[in-house]
Amino acid sequence: MELTWHGHSTWYVTVGDTDLLIDPFFDNPQTSMEPADVDDPDYVLLTHGHADHIGHAGEFSDATLVAVPELVSYAKEEMGFEDAVGGMGMNIGGTVEIGDAYVTMHRADHTNGVNTGYEYDVGMPGGFIISDTKPTQVSDEESTTFYHAGDTGLMTEMRDVVGPYLEPDAAALPIGDHFTMGPWQAAIAVDWLDVDYAYPMHYDTFPPIEQDPEDFRREVDGTGSDAEVVVPEADETFTLEEGY
């Protein structure tokens, strides 16, 4: 599995021969790339409808959309998307097989909505757990799993559900504070999730969410977690191997 961070909450994930683009928003200071510079993904995954998460989704409307049904309806009407997983999107708690990947949607503690002169109800915000094997109650030591938490606050489901049952090897967590978790709560999430690798995201894009990611690293160390905090450069690719 290959993971590429394009700044803010935008990630490009490759599982086998399947390419996924999560929350495309390239108007952020971390990346030098434009949407046209990005390889066309097979699927676009949207965690929620805020502008800094769907800002460039329409540039990839030939891909299949993965989002809650309300956001799928908006994207079809306003952003040119035709295809959605299952014809109507997916929802919290569901798992879908898309190409070589299995994607499970879990809730995020956040708000949602699109304001374009009138307000759309675009459903519940979420995060995605992406794996190369289907999640079951039997632990699979050979699977590789990445958790994109979306915009969220700290929630006990990370400790009680996502960590022990969906077993992510790596997690991308917002650390910007103000609108989401800050470094110290995100560090608690890392400890609860019991991941091997933790990536900070959703910071330094706007003045209210300016953060030093080294604060996140120190907070993770303070929890006693064994996770390695990886602070990526924008557009840098990481490889997660089987059996992590």
From TrEMBL:
Family under the similarity heading: Belongs to the UPF0173 family.
Keywords carried by this UniProt record: Hydrolase
Keyword Hydrolase included in the entry's annotation: yes
Pfam families for the chain: Lactamase_B_2
All copies of domain Metallo-beta-lactamase, residue ranges: 7-202
Lineage: Archaea, Methanobacteriati, Methanobacteriota, Stenosarchaea group, Halobacteria
This protein's record includes keyword Hydrolase: yes
Stored Gene3D superfamilies: Ribonuclease Z/Hydroxyacylglutathione hydrolase-like
NCBIfam families (alphabetical): PRK00685.1 (NF001911)
Signal peptide feature range: none
Name this polypeptide is given: UPF0173 metal-dependent hydrolase AUR64_11155
GO MF annotation, one: hydrolase activity
